[in-house]
Design brief:
Layout (H helix, E strand, L loop, with lengths): L2 H5 L9 H16 L5 H22 L5 H5 L3 H13 L4 H20 L26 H6 L13 H17 L3 H5 L14 E5 L5 E5 L2 H13 L21 H15 L7 H14 L4 H8 L4 H4 L1 H17 L4
Antiparallel strand pairs: 1-2
Helix pairs in contact: 3-6, 8-10, 8-12, 12-15
């Protein structure tokens, strides 16, 4: 969410000016002091707006600041039930509740009332879904220009896409992190082996990068017809503007069809594959956490479940039966 958008008072037709003012201040606090990502800010803002719109209709009047502070657990449950009826998942419901709680805590700290009912609501249960990594051989082929035979796009675009995918798998980057790299952030082959990337919450971390991956990036840079200044993005679109993540997603959709891979083979799956394959070859979980930029080790531990499945398969096929 842009800073200028947060500087202007939010217009809420379903709530009074006092509540709209406090919501504006809350979002500004999350951006400047909590340093939440723009996507999280947008999601929290949208969730609270949806709740206020529901409450306005539910109560038959605009929501006031005292009225919001006096929320009852039944009101929140009714809102959550309405959202669930729209077929949204448990994770989205959990995020909505987290946003409402954050807003409630802010109001309490600012002396604008305590929304006690929010603490009485249990977070919805969500099933644990393990990421689906791409096999090693297939992951490598995504960065192979020969796989793009028959592609009618310019060769420099093939080279660009191959370089991006090599970074996702070779360094475990999120797609936003790869596309956020500036030209000066990426060393020439032989001149370095580390990238400094900016991840969630505007946090930076250092990740290793293979020389063959740097060579793929350099091959793309040499072919690119557009100017790539040191402070500008290293990966650009067909007309030289910012490269959209959707372009890489569409490229991977075409390639996974040619490789016979399922729909789960997405750009983010290459990042999952990076972690899974490291763990499968004896990588330390704490080190993998640092490489991925996870704030909590519990987030990284999902990969131990994948590795356990692999070990179990080996056991079933290799263990001698009586």
């Amino acid at each position: 969410m842009a800073e200028s958008a947060l500087a202007q008072p939010i217009e809420l037709h379903c709530a009074d000016d006092d509540l709209a003012r406090e919501m504006t201040r809350w979002l500004a606090h999350l951006r400047s002091e909590r340093r939440l990502s723009p996507k999280t800010l947008d999601a929290y803002s949208r969730d609270v707006r949806q709740c206020l719109a529901f409450l306005s209709e539910h109560w038959g009047s605009r929501v006031t600041l005292p009225g919001f502070a006096a929320l009852e657990a039944s009101d929140i449950r009714a809102f959550m039930a309405m959202r669930r009826s729209s077929a949204i998942g448990g994770r989205s419901l959990m995020r909505a509740l987290a946003g409402l709680r954050s807003f409630g805590r802010f109001l309490e700290r600012e002396g604008s009332g305590k929304v006690g009912a929010l603490s009485a609501i249990r977070a919805p249960k969500i099933g644990k879904s393990l990421p689906k990594p791409v096999p090693v051989t297939a992951a490598k082929r995504f960065a192979d220009a020969e796989e793009r035979a028959g592609d009618t796009r310019d060769p420099w675009i093939w080279a660009r896409d191959a370089a991006v995918m090599a970074l996702l798998y070779g360094s475990g980057l999120r797609i936003s992190e790869a596309l956020g790299l500036r030209r000066r952030d990426v060393p020439l082959p032989g001149a370095g082996d580390v990238l400094v990337v900016t991840g969630k919450g505007n946090k930076t971390r250092m990740v290793p990068v293979l020389q063959n991956v740097l060579q793929l990036v350099q091959d793309y840079v040499a072919m690119c017809p557009h100017q790539l200044p040191p402070e500008g993005p290293i990966f650009v679109g067909a007309r030289g503007g910012p490269l959209s993540p959707r372009i890489i997603q569409l490229t991977m959709e075409r390639l996974r069809g040619a490789l016979g891979l399922p729909d789960s083979a997405t750009p983010h799956a290459l990042r999952h594959s990076f972690a899974t394959h490291l763990l499968g070859r004896g990588g330390d979980l704490r080190a993998i956490q640092e490489l991925l930029g996870h704030a909590s080790l519990s987030t990284t531990q999902i990969y131990t479940g994948i590795d356990s499945e692999r070990l179990l398969e080996v056991y079933k096929t290799a263990h001698p039966r009586a």
